[in-house]
Amino acid sequence: MSFDPRTVITHAQTRLGPVTLAATGQGLAGMWFAGQKHHPDTDAWRVDDNNPWLAQARTELAEYLDGQRSRFDVALDLCTGSVFQQAVWRSLCTIAAGSTTSYGAVSRQIGRPSAVRAVGAAVGRNPISIFVPCHRVLGANGALTGYAGGLARKEALLALESGAPDRHTQPMTTVGPSAKTRTIPA
């Protein structure tokens, strides 16, 4: 992934742990949990707590995590990915809150039905967690599969969207990898 060298960042504390938000002149370009897989090195990026894209993203993220918002309005900059990755990420943005889909369904939606593994890789490299809702993608059998921010966070996000009681009401500071694939109860 290639980020604009003028990318700016801010940090926020959420009920799922600390996050870094990144923006370019085009919109929100990144949202990563602390310790998340594929978190880019942001040390050279300038902190700009007053950037309008970042301020809007902070507000919308807080509203979403408080159950007051189900969709996001902040502009997104998906230009860090390849053309294929961008197609996958745009497809993810069409999955409604409270709904889930499979990697195979995403590959069919983008017109690449045999590219299920490549879709999985693109979903895993999604740089804008939550805003580009990769947490809504499940295995073909409905199993919770990998999530760069940790399966416990994926489970908490799906529970939030479904209105199910959330076991993760206390702020999370670290979430370790799960040894097993878990299935969401029907």
Description:
Helices cover 28% and strands 17% of the residues. It has helices at 52-65, 83-92, 103-109, 116-124, 151-162, and strands at residues 8-14, 17-24, 27-33, 46-47, 101-102, 137-138, 143-144, 182-183. Helix 3 (103-109) crosses helix 4 (116-124). The termini are far apart.
Number of helices: 5
What's the shape?
globular
Unreliable runs: 167-186
Strand order of the largest sheet: 3-2-1-4
CATH architecture of the largest domain: Orthogonal Bundle
Q: How many strands in all? A: 8
In whole angstroms, the N-to-C terminal distance is 36 Å
Radius of gyration: 16 Å
- SSE run: EEEEHHEHHEEHE
Instruction: Report the CATH topology name of the largest domain.
Output: Arc Repressor Mutant, subunit A
Strand content: 15-25%
CATH class of the largest domain, anyone? Answer: Mainly Alpha
The total tally of domains equals 2
Q: Please identify the structural class as seen in this structure.
A: alpha/beta
Average of the residue pLDDT scores: 87
